[in-house]
Amino acid sequence: MERRQRFVAKAVEQAIKCFDSGQWTTGMAKAKAAMQLMEALEEPGASDLDLALLLGGLCLAEAASGCWAEALSLCCKHSGAIADEMLKDWLLQGWSDESNTLMSGDTIQFTGAQHAQLTGLVMGPSAEFGSWQVRVTGAASEASAALGPGEAAASVPEAVEEAGDVLEVIEAEAALLTLRLSEEQQLRWKSLQEEMPNLFQKRMSSDNEARWRKLFSAAAQKFRRGPLIGSSAEESGLPLEQTFAATLYDCILEHRQSCGAQAELTVDVLGCRPALELDEPLCALVAIIQVLPQCLKTLVVRMCGPEVPEDYQLLRDVEGRHLVLEVRKGLYHDLYPDSQADLVIAMNAGMGVPQYAKMWGPTLTSLSQRRGGLLAVTSYSPGELIREEKLLRRLWPLCISPASPDLKEILLTMRAGQRLTLQRSVGATTLRGTEVSLKRGDVLEFVSRAADGLHVVCRETLLYVGPNLTPGRNRNFGKLVLRSALASIENMDNRFDRKAWHNVKATMSGFWEFPDLKKPEGNMLMSAEFVNSLRL
Questions:
Q1: Strand 374-379 vs strand 398-400: parallel, antiparallel, or unpaired?
Q2: Where residue 93 falls among pLDDT bands split at 50, 70, 90?
Q3: Would 414 be classed as within a structural domain?
Q4: Burial class (CB in 10 A: 0-12, 13-18, 19+), 290
Q5: Cross-strand pairs, 478
Q6: Statement to judge: residues 151 and 190 lie in one domain
Q7: Are residues 14 and 92 in the same domain?
Q8: Radius of gyration of the chain (CA)
Q9: Orientation of helix 48-64 relative to helix 24-39, angle to 10°
């Protein structure tokens, strides 16, 4: 046994040296071999520091090869061993930067001179660094869909620019409308097509496809300039309009992997729209249950939203298994105030968009009362997902006393607004006096204007954040999967204080002003040695 452990320690050391010198391909192979050897041992055979450097380096190596989903999945899965919140933030920002890099021919949305939202075609880089020459194709409002039920009309500034004008646009201020699938995303779509063709046997009807394109890709189609979204050779033939079925299927599999097999599963889908999630949902759900593991005997799907045309309920027997579909018009927190669904999904909810976040306040408060299950959220863009991850992980804060004895030395190194990833397990006391154990990898932070204690963002709440492997055209680009509450906490009142929660909500008004992720503050292990040498 000791001989094997020494062999593992040597393999780990070699992998770390490769990562430190920027030899990502060689280091990745050595790191994966070392991990396979460690899985066969009862003890890892490496120190906490070496294990953190090995896994953190492997995350960066995956990112260096363009596999951002694999890198972020690995980072979330081994967050306790890596114990480096800054690494996760860096990976998210790196994926965001790469995804939003403009190219000639891209269709973008940007702000004009009178704050009007415009669409345009990228012509090429301008003389000024970080800016692009963009030909205006029209106002973004021209590509907007008609107002749905429950939607209020909003005043839209009138554009002074005309179609054909060429403007200089700063890249950081442009929103990319063109979808470019990564190799990971193309492979996932193709594998689903090959392994589960029945999942996509129903393609979108022509009238709903017209509505769908008007909602999410009208800018490119209306003006007939630049590449049509999803028109490349790699993407043509992929059922991108079936992103709802594919993403829902993957989320159910993630629930199974995280929570175990269940005979009955209840899924709540929020913010449903007629041309998207409600485009003959029964057909999609029948296809999904047919390809799910046979141990699942009953699937209950409840869909709601302010744009639902009418309430109805359907029951189907699918090859001896029960499918229940319930569709209701209204807001989730009103319709299901005490819901304890196994999986809650909000696709393209806009929770990370400042102007929409307040609208989600009552629903977020309702979700904060959940005692278990998973919450999955998808987003239109990487930037939106980054904000959602920071917001939603604080739905279930562990509020502890700054007077906890084991935290005294740690607190001396922190200041308000700073985050720190715990490098070892420590004891702490909640505001109600309950003794709890904080784990390596948990994130400790002072929250501004919340004077009732410290907040701990538990590492176990985050299951995945990063690219969604089954995106559609301008839909479901990023995905966040959270565990609603920790199973190890038997009594939620021991860690969830109502007064403290109001303080958390009070901080959300200024929540969008967090520091630049490229220059985070904290203790982290990787950045100096690894990030600076990363060669993408």
A1: unpaired
A2: very high
A3: no
A4: middle
A5: 379, 467
A6: no
A7: yes
A8: 24
A9: 130
For the residues of 68-84, what is the DSSP string, one character each?
HHHHHHHHHHTHHHH--
* Structural domain contains residue 446: no
- Structure confidence at residue 55 (pLDDT): 95
Q: Sign of dihedral through CA atoms 316, 321, 325, 326? A: positive
Asked whether residue 208 is domain-assigned, the answer is yes
DSSP class per residue in 172-192? GG-EE-S----HHHHHHHHHH
β-strands 117-125, 131-139: how paired?
Answer: antiparallel
Taking the whole predicted model, whether its pTM rises above 0.70 is answered as yes
- Note whether 135 and 269 are same-domain residues: no
Instruction: Please tell me whether residues 15 and 38 are part of one structural domain.
Output: yes
Q: Give the C-alpha separation, 297 to 322, whole Å.
A: 6
State whether residue 269 is helix, strand or coil.
strand
Please calculate the CA angle 97-511-74 and round it to the nearest 5 degrees: 45
Q: Cα separations (Å) of 271 from 303, 304, 344?
A: 8, 6, 11
How many folded domains does the chain comprise?
A: 3
Q: What is the DSSP letter of 260?
A: -
Q: Using CA atoms, how far apart are residues 484 and 354, in angstroms rounded to an integer?
A: 23
10 Å Cβ neighbour count for 428? 24
Does residue 251 share a domain with residue 139?
no
User: Which amino acid makes up residue 471?
Assistant: P
CATH number of the CATH domain containing 61: 1.25.40
Residue with tokens 């020494």, as numbered in its chain? 6
Instruction: Using alpha carbons, list the distances in angstroms from residue 535 to 24, 93, 313.
Output: 9, 15, 54
Question: CA-based diameter of the chain, in Å?
Answer: 75
Supply the range of the domain harboring residue 84. Answer: 2-101
User: What three-state secondary structure class fits 162?
Assistant: coil
Task: Provide the sign of the torsion angle of the four alpha carbons 104, 107, 108, 111, taken in this order.
Answer: positive
- Using CA atoms, how far apart are residues 500 and 451, in angstroms rounded to an integer? 9
pLDDT digits (tens, 9 = 90+) for 292-330: 999 999 999 999 999 899 999 999 999 999 999 999 999
Give the residue among 46, 50, 65, 45 at the shortest CA–CA distance from 20.
50
